[in-house]
Amino acid sequence: MAQSTSQTGGQTRQLLTATNLAVSVPAAGTTTLLEVPTAGIDTMGLSFDVTVQALDAFAITARFNADSAFVTLYSTAGSFTTPAGLLIGASGDLTTQAAGTTGWFVLYTRGLHSVKVTCSANVAGAATVSVYAGGAGN
User: How would you class 7 by CB atoms within 10 Å of its CB: exposed for 0-12, middle for 13-18, buried for 19 or more?
Assistant: First the structure.
């Protein structure tokens, strides 16, 4: 299924919702699960359900301007098990998320143009991942 993203709001509050369902994630290379604009969003939360195979890589990347490249913010086990900086919290080591489980993180996004989440499946074969994100700002 294709990614669905919407940002709504008025004079006082911005809201973000985004989903990408049943993404096939092969073992080779990395696959983008979700890319969301974060203008006007202070914090975002993201949860993802993994089926079929476990993951062997997971990364949160961001860019600071529409014309800049994405830079990796978090991609190691320790960055998820001991959150710091912009990462407010995570459900554990997202780089080895098991099949049949749900992982999540909460990220402070003020000052970021957009956030992209990527992953890859373990060598046993492709995983199927569904992603759900939401955010709010003032």
Answer: middle
